[in-house]
Amino acid sequence: MTTVSAGGAADYTEKIPNNVDLHEDRRLQRALESWQPNFLNWWESMGPALPTQDVYLRTAINVGREGWAHFGHVAMRDYRWGIFLAERDPGRTIGFGEHKGEPAWQQIPGEYRSELRRLIVIQGDTEPASVEQQRNLGATAPSLYDLRNLFQVNVEEGRHLWAMVYLLQAYFGRDGREEAEDLLRRNSGSEDSPRILGAFNEETPDWLSFFMFTYFTDRDGKYQLGTLKESAFDPLSRTCEFMLKEEAHHMFVGTTGVDRVVERTAQLMADHDTDDAAEIAARGAIPLAVIQKYLNFHYSVSLDLFGGETSTNVANYYTAGLKGRWMEDRRKDDHQLTSDAILVDALVDAGSGSQSIGQTEVLALTGLNTDLRREYISDCQSGVNRWNKILAETGLPQRLKLPHVAFNRKVGVFAGIEASPEGEILSADEWAQRSGAWLPTDVDKTHVRSLMQPVHERGKIAAWIAPPRNGINGKPFDYEYVHLP
Ligand code: BYC
After folding, report:
1. What's the pTM?
2. Sign (positive or negative) of CA dihedral 37, 113, 220, 328
3. d(CA 159, CA 18)
């Protein structure tokens, strides 16, 4: 059952499941109705390329504590992309910034319109971008289980686009409608109209990249959505709260995906008593050194997604009440931060014209990107610990690690320098000579791609990855998660 209220426009509400009483707002209904075919055209041309009959998918149907989702085989084009906001708390007040303690906003105050639109557009832009990046992965899936998880992530990113488009159409009038069109016009990696943020224009050409992306980049989504969930603009807050529920599965796909790659490699290393990359590669798995390079790449491009170490944008967002901190209500301070300070990473003068990596004190407000990035980094470390536990339990001494925060950065204070994974500043020449040892080379990528032979047979799995411990929704691993034509 959906929470959709029946009404005059029952046929339309059937098309777009929602819990926002869409049928009561004819103008909005018409606007979304005219956007829907464009979305479906985009899905057909930029979404999953592999033809399928149907896929065992989770569909959001409600926002209550119990039973918010339904599982069943559906043709992907018929997936019910709906609009769901977490339940409204009528007494909610703003938790931070200069409006702290005032009632949360149900409409957008005129003075914050353009900032809020910018935040919603940036958030919205990442959702279809990731679907575009993952478009061709279906053709090389290691199992039907993994294929299903890819498509689950894709349809939900599509729903998250709907979530942002709903806000744009409902609260931003004509420019909101134009932004909604533009979200389908920009494309990942396009020369003329690329996606807004760097990481979303990178390729996701193989499944190791996909797992790293869902581990590291979707995790940026978790943290950014977590800060937007604090927003004084209540509809944004409620939308993000519900998106976070779906997002958890995406990160599960990444965490357990990397687990399984590490497990397979570790097993071969132990069985054959070798840490020779060529031998592991020859045995059809991904050498640990290559896993480390992929980790280095995805982690560093994801660090860029948090913006500069200091930012007046973020200070303004916070003061205005548009974007809070991670777990704002657990912070033990005044939630206004007007006289607080924070240490942020910086390049400091090391004498005789050279620089070194150090820290500098800035206003807490301008350092909020750093605050969020730090929360993210410690969360990323937990995945690395988990993968290292797999290595340790297999009796191996090797370990994976997160590279230094200055490594391979294109945004912020370290964008102008090169640094090793240990945080040693390098000249451009040194970087050119050594970066192939730290980032995936063409040879590494070609090898990983050569392993990506599709396994679309029920209950079977590719040799480079271990099977999952459990199936989806209580189903076994050998369940027919996807019916291919
Ligand atoms: N690439 O003042 P600064 C997700 C720009 S992921 C290119 O430090 P600010 C998902 C910046 O726009 C979550 N440009 O920036 C994951 C600014 O430009 P202007 C997505 C960049 O505003 C997987 C200039 O550089 N959501 O959901 O403090 C699958 C100066 O920067 C980048 C959000 O990001 C970059 N990486 O912080 C699917 C939340 N970084 O103004 C989905 C909304 C910065 O000078 N966005 N720039 O022209 C924000 O909160 C902020 O805009 C940012 C940047 C954190 C992104």
Report:
1. 0.95
2. negative
3. 11
